[in-house]
Amino acid sequence: MDVGGTKVAASVVDASGVPLGAVRLPTPAAAGPEAVLDTMAEAARGALRRAGRAAPPEAVGVSTGGVVDHATGTVVAATGLLPGWAGTAVARELSTRLGGVPVSVENDGNALALGELWFGAARTREDVLFTAVGTGVAGALLYGGELVRGTHHTAGELGHLPAPGAGETVCSCGRTGHLEGATAGPSLAARYARLAALRPAPAGDAAAPGEPPALRWIAERADAGEPLAREVLADGATVLGRTLGGLCNLFDPQAVIVSGGVSACGPAYWRPLRSAFTAELLPSVREVPLLGAELGPLAAVCGAAVLPAHAELTAARSARPSTGAAG
Question: Which end of the chain has fewer CB atoms within 10 angstroms, the N or the C?
Answer without folding.
Answer: C
